[in-house]
């Protein structure tokens, strides 16, 4: 055999979903560390045509939560690093994909919003909302919407309707009121401005 036997991967780093994620993590970690954080998890998940590179970051210790501006800054820095790496094969797993989305999250900053006060703290931000619907076919559709206001009963949002083509601006729908009772899950979406 000549020492080529592969030991069972019990000692493998649990933070990474597969070897591709592990390879990408080595490129991602320096950027995350530069922002004073550590990489919690890296995963490449494909659902239908979309492949998402999920990077979860957090403080190494302490109870602070990572703020969304930091996450946005990391997203922006990472997209530059990954774009460059694709040019020179360091990011072979990504270069093999037609397209992928980078999602940087932190257990604190992007933990689901469950209390009215969580919503109040995030007025003006973009949320991803899943809600129970009277119409079962709509129950699972996640809504991306900007939080306008919060009242006793629920929240007022304007839906962001994705652009049909890349490079086009998304449309903004009318204000709608969503009751707390109908929200099954809500979390803040991280945005960062893409400079062309």
Automatic annotation (TrEMBL):
Residues 27-109 form the Ribosome maturation factor RimP N-terminal domain. Its main location: cytoplasm. Keywords: Cytoplasm, Ribosome biogenesis. GO terms for biological process: ribosomal small subunit assembly; translation. InterPro entries: Ribosome_maturation_RimP, RimP_C, RimP_N, RimP_N_sf. Residues 113-192 form the Ribosome maturation factor RimP C-terminal domain. One of its GO terms (cellular component) is cytosol. It is found in: Cytoplasm. The keyword Cytoplasm applies. CDD domains: YlxS_C. Belongs to the RimP family. Required for maturation of 30S ribosomal subunits. This is Ribosome maturation factor RimP.
């Amino acid at each position: 055999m000549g020492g080529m036997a592969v030991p069972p991967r019990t000692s493998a780093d649990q933070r990474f979903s597969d070897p591709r994620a592990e390879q990408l993590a080595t490129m991602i970690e320096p950027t995350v560390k530069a922002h004073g954080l550590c990489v919690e998890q890296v995963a490449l998940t494909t659902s239908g045509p979309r492949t998402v590179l999920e990077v979860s970051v957090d403080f190494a210790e302490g109870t602070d939560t990572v703020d969304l501006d930091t996450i946005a800054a990391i997203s922006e820095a990472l997209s530059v690093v990954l774009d460059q790496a694709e040019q020179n094969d360091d990011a072979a797993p990504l270069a093999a994909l037609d397209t992928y989305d980078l999602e940087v999250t932190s257990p604190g900053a992007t933990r689901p919003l469950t209390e009215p006060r969580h919503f109040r703290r995030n007025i003006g931000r973009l949320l991803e909302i899943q809600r129970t619907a009277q119409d079962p076919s709509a129950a699972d559709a996640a809504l991306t919407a900007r939080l306008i206001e919060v009242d006793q009963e629920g929240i007022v949002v304007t839906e962001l309707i994705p652009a049909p083509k890349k490079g086009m601006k998304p449309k903004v729908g009318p204000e709608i009121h969503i009751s707390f009772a109908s929200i099954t899950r809500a979390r803040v979406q991280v945005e960062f401005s893409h400079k062309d």
